[in-house]
Amino acid sequence: MSDDLFLKIIAREIPADIVYEDDDVLAFRDVNPQAPLHVLVIPKTHIRTINDMQEHDAELFGKLFLAAKKIAEQQGVAEDGYRVVMNCNAAAGQTVFHVHLHLLGGRGFSWPPG
Ligand code: 5GP
Q1: Position 111 in a domain
Q2: Residue 93 falls within a domain, yes or no?
Q3: H helix or E strand, kind and range, residue 13
Q4: Which residues pair with 102 in a beta bridge?
Q5: Contact yes or no for 34/104 (Cβ under 8 A)
Q6: Structural domain boundaries enclosing 64
Q7: Which of 55, 66, 75, 87 has a C-alpha 20 to 30 A away from that of 40?
Q8: How high is the pLDDT of residue 2?
């Protein structure tokens, strides 16, 4: 947990461009954006991957999606559409082991994803 980069952002030990915060959730712009809007939505508690999710985390994960919805509205991409992605472990490309939703918008996205 001590090497959890996102806990350091929550603690304001590392700067971030924060776009949303409530009691349970923090959201900030990705340092290496893959779309005009690329925000990471994270729980304030340390959960490494989706595989570590417990039954009692269900409401918290729901709050990540509610925050993503609000941010999409605030940032003006809700109507056109946006993509929400959560990578789990190496095969999916997870590099930071504190669960996070990627909220991507401001351009079109193809399917299937790469
Ligand atoms: P993952 O690959 O784990 O799904 O996504 C991790 C994301 O965190 C990447 O998109 C990466 O650009 C972003 N990221 C890594 N370090 C930092 C940082 O220090 N600040 C911010 N804002 N984003 C970061």
Answers
A1: no
A2: yes
A3: none
A4: 40, 85
A5: yes
A6: 5-105
A7: 55
A8: 60
Nearest ligand 1 atom to alpha carbon 16:
22
Domain total of the chain: 1
For residue 25 the two structure tokens come to: 């959730």
Residue identifier of the C-alpha nearest atom 12 of ligand 1: 32
What pLDDT does 18 receive? 98
Determine whether 100 is an active site residue: yes
Residue whose structure tokens are 């039954």: 55
Of 9, 88, 96, 99, the residue with max ligand 1 atoms within 8 A of its CB, to mutate for a pocket test, comes to: 96
The CATH code of the domain that includes 61 is 3.30.428.10
Below-70 pLDDT ranges, the chain: 1-2
Task: State whether the beta carbon of 6 lies less than 6 angstroms from ligand 1.
Answer: no
Residue showing tokens 């991957």: 49
The answer as to whether 113 is a domain residue is no
- DSSP class of 52: G
Distance of alpha carbon 49 from alpha carbon 51, whole angstroms = 5
Q: Which amino acid is at 2?
A: S
